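ingest -> validate -> predict -> emit
validate: passed (alphabet ok, no gaps, 88 aa)
predict: started
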Amino acid sequence: MLTKELKSKIIEDNQLSPTDSGSPEVQVALMTERINQLINHFQIHKKDYTSRRGLMKLVGQRKRLLEYLKETDKGRYQRLITKLNLRK
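emit:
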């Protein structure tokens, strides 16, 4: 689970304006952190299939948000995937 401090730091690093907390960049960054935490969880708990389903839902949701951002503003999309190291 994301702590309040970690969540605040991620939002602060990715927000577009001082009051922004829901832009696609912020949402994708939060999802990416949660996905990374779940991946570490599965290295220890290999048979946790219920959480694995949640991981797949998060990955799909992040994919849809990235597609939306790619269609609306390619520059923001490129900056975000570079910042989060999502594509090789």
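DSSP finds four helices and no strands in the chain.
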